[in-house]
Amino acid sequence: MSTTAERTDVLVIGSGFGGAIAAYHLAAGGADVTVLERGPWLESKEFEHDYKLGSSYTRVFDFTVGDGMSILGGNCVGGGSVVYFAAMPRAPRFVFDRQGSIGRRMWPGAVSRDTLDPWYDRVEESLSITKQNWNDVSYAGGLWAAACNHSGRTANPLAVAIDNTKCVNCNWMMAGCRFEAKQSLLVNYLPAAIAHGARIRPLHEVQHLSRTPDGSYRVHYNVVHDDDYRLQAGSGVIEAKIVVMAAGAGATPVILQRSEAHLGTMPRAVGRYFSGNGERLNTAVIDEAKAAELFGLERGDGLAYAANHIGKGPTVASWDKLDGSLPEYSRYSLEQLYFPPGLGTILAQVPGATGPSWFGKEKKEILKQWASWLTIFTMIEDDNEGVFGPPPATGNSHRISQQMLGRGNLRYEPTKNTLGAWAASDAEVKEILEKDGLAKVMPWTNDLVGAYTVHPLSSCRMGDDPHTSALDDRNELRDHPGIFVTDGSAVPGALTVNPAMTIAALAERAVPGIVQAAQRRGISVTYGAPAPDGSASGRKNVLPLLPSARG
């Protein structure tokens, strides 16, 4: 390992929502900012329209199999924003008053829907988020809306970070957007950060942190081989006065666990209280004749929601159960979601199977009807029951394959509350889609990879209680001043909706405090940059909330 450490004012670990937002504001404020990203840096023209091994799909994803829970996340410059479906709803008001497994309010007293709304506004301005209308939704979304209406439920088009003037309806969003229609961080915060001098280093995987004699931090990293992520191409150290951790809820706690031998005791909540955002999927095999009979829907060229090439990601959700008057664990959203071949076809079970439910002869038969599958994504309130065990020797997992696949140290045993909420949401999906013979519905199996999530949260969560939270209400790691966590691991619990908007808003909210901490450590930096495109109306909304304005 190199004995000569580089130096930077601020070192950001990860380039997803939590990392990119912090990097932009700190660089725009005058700090010397370096971003380390473990994945590759792909340009839009490199995003391929296939799901072959070795393509952009396997290069930019990280699939980590744990004990009872598997995590699918981004692994590239831009992080999860490159592979997400761009659904950007705000969290319901009741979420911030949740008690969950600890029996008292999980969120810090300083954070509520009211106090977070101005920061949501900032994100909305920066990412050009728009609410779709019914002319924007996919056929699959329209079918889901019609089924909801037919069964006495309501449905709504989703707010999305998509420029519909550029969208070609190709539905390859999970492999990266070739057309820059999806508002990933590659087209806003990251280029703006670079314009202000931030340096982004792909294929740099942080291993642990240690402390310098003057109270700064040394960030130790390995350089990952470009094609085979199991191999190392070097290593190094960078010293920074401020460290912003945004490696994702499946990696940030692992880095901190490995750092404990060098930094001293970590807060108890580091690596505990993990939430998969309560996610679960159901597959419905649609009877095409019934869809035509009940709703008058026609599939046109026959590809309207048939697998890869036509359509969009999620466009319609049913939010009838997002009612704050309902008891905890009975509130959830139901969202139509396209999921590509691979996990979607493997984990789907056969409705009414007489033999094995996710493989075998009967599974082969329903695969012939793949063009008529509709997937419904459920987000419930879980119990934050995930716990990370001892960290692997390097990285966040033991890498099994050249790209994408690893074995992690997360253990997840669903509680009675979580299982009950999943069962209730499964029953609702079944009732909606099986009414009058429209479809046959079954949830995805948990037998193969356990539960699964594309939105990992809460593994280093913020809060007021030092016993049950790793961060204070400004996202600073307890007992380790100068280390901040701004990714999904900071979110206290399941949100019942897609979390990207809330992660981004919390990151925006954290920046003024990070700037203040940087100033105290002698960094010449200010806060006050506009949105990446220069818009400033959102900034006016947050000025009264800044620490200096409150005295």
Question: Please, could you describe this protein's structure?
Answer:
The protein is an alpha/beta fold and 551 residues long. Strands 1, 2, 8, 9, 10, 11 and 21 form a seven-stranded mixed β-sheet that branches. Strands 3, 4, 16, 17, 18 and 20 form a six-stranded mixed β-sheet that branches. Strand 17 and strand 18 form a beta hairpin. Helix 4 crosses helix 12. The longest helix has 21 residues. The radius of gyration is 22 Å and the shape is globular. The model has no long low-confidence stretch (mean pLDDT 92).
Mean pLDDT equals 92
**Rg, Å, rounded:** 22 Å
Q: Percent of residues in beta strands?
A: 15-25%
Number of domains: 1
How many strands?
A: 21
Structural class of the secondary elements?
alpha/beta
The major pleated sheet works out as:
7 strands, mixed
Helix content: 10-25%
Specify the overall morphology: globular
Number of helices: 14
CATH-defined superfamily: FAD/NAD(P)-binding domain
Ranges with pLDDT <50 over ≥5 residues? Answer: none
Terminal residue distance? 46 Å
Cofactor: FAD
Protein name: Cholesterol oxidase
InterPro entries: Cholesterol_Oxidase (IPR052542), FAD-dep_OxRdtase (IPR006076), FAD/NAD-bd_sf (IPR036188), GMC_OxRdtase_N (IPR000172), GMC_OxRtase_C (IPR007867)
Domain Glucose-methanol-choline oxidoreductase C-terminal: 452-507
